[in-house]
Design brief:
- There is one protein chain.
- Helices cover 30% and strands 22% of the residues.
- The chain is α/β, with parallel strands linked by helices.
- It is globular and about 60 Å long.
């Protein structure tokens, strides 16, 4: 298989797992990295044996790069994607896809014009856990899905992340940071969302960093930090969603889906594996479901590898920009529903991506 040469822009905390995994995919070659902090890029290159360190501007224009992996902060997602696409590169970007639907749509329109592919995290939905959930749903294990719940609650990232400020600026918050994992998993299994009804709030206008190296620094909060709402899917399923940075502790499940014949307890969508349990119409309790065997550990990069194979196979990537744009529109509708006091219809539509077979992605990862 021909390898696509990957250039990584952004060498922050999430980059390490990508640097580790990229060489293990048959369709990828780690060719260069870049960061606004050149010392950070040089340290990453030394640790992971990356051949070249470039400036971000040079990397997106370099003829030796086929696909740009964009790991910048959310404010840089659409601008870096645009620069890369203008230079004829395919792109795969960390979530969220953009800060608003209009700039995300411009990225997709430009990619279509230039004849390149666009993918977006999360690719956790391609892991063993949610591919097994997809298998059970499509096998009719719970009948027709009619309802569900999705809960992501914590007390924010300032206690562990070395640079947590961007999580509380426009483009951050619990919905745009963690919501993509949950909503992508839901859309992957239930199809597109028709409308959103929600309420949101902001508990603290300022937060204090307690992690190193910035412990004690005050941070302004620009985004809603508790969002709760209801999604109505085209399929008719209704799902309650909560994402929050204002909860100290909870005993809530991650995702549960309920159908006409049973219920499915699903794993953390921010992971690639996890326990899946099925409860049928009989009163015989929850039974663990046998999971797919491949890509159950941290397999970040699988979406990028799928995109690289999609380039060669002439198809759309499974973790596509179109899927990410639909999820972005749904996430932004939570605040819009609160501001306008009404249901928010979702204009975009997206097909559920094809399931991933065990042999669909060539990799040495388990």
């Amino acid at each position: 298989m021909k390898k696509l040469r990957v250039g990584v822009v952004g060498c922050g905390k999430i980059s390490g797992i990508y640097f580790k995994n990229i060489p293990q995919f048959a369709a990828l070659e780690l060719a260069a990295c870049a960061d606004l902090n050149k010392e950070r890029a040089e340290a990453a290159a030394k640790e992971h044996k990356i051949p070249r360190v470039l400036s971000p501007e040079a990397l997106v224009a370099d003829p030796g790069i086929d696909v740009v992996l964009n790991l910048t902060v959310p404010q840089g997602h659409a601008p870096v994607n645009t620069q890369a696409i203008e230079n004829g590169k395919h792109v795969f970007v960390e979530k969220p896809f953009a800060l608003n639907v209009a700039e995300g749509q411009k990225v997709l329109d430009l990619a279509k014009q230039k004849g390149v592919l666009v993918g977006c995290a999360p690719d956790t939905v391609l892991g063993a856990g949610y591919q097994t959930v997809r298998r059970e749903i499509e096998a009719g294990s719970i009948g027709r899905p009619v309802s569900g719940t999705a809960f992501m609650t914590c007390h924010g990232h300032e206690s562990w992340h070395p640079d947590p400020e961007f999580y509380y600026l426009k483009g951050g918050g619990p919905m745009l940071d963690m919501g993509p994992y949950y909503l992508t998993a839901l859309v992957m299994n239930l199809g597109p969302v028709r409308r959103v009804s929600a309420e949101t709030s902001l508990a603290f206008g300022e937060r204090t960093i307690t992690s190193q190296p910035k412990a004690g620094k005050k941070m302004p909060v620009e985004v809603s930090t508790h969002l709760t709402g209801t999604l109505l899917f085209d399929s008719g399923a209704v799902v309650t969603v909560i994402t929050s940075f204002d909860v100290w502790a909870a005993h809530l499940p991650r995702i549960e889906l309920h159908g006409t014949l049973g219920s499915l307890s699903c794993p953390d969508p921010n992971s690639f594996g996890g326990k899946i349990e099925l409860h049928g119409p009989n009163k015989d309790g929850w039974k663990e479901v046998a999971s797919q065997k491949r890509f159950g550990e941290n397999s970040r990069g699988i979406g990028l590898a799928d995109l690289a194979q999609a380039v060669q196979e002439g198809r759309a990537p499974r973790a596509s920009g179109e899927l990410a744009l639909h999820v972005l529109e749904v996430m932004l509708a939570f605040d819009k529903s609160t501001r306008e006091g009404k249901h928010i219809p979702i204009g975009s539509r997206v097909e559920k991506p094809a399931p991933r077979g065990d042999d669909a992605i060539e990799s040495t990862l388990p």
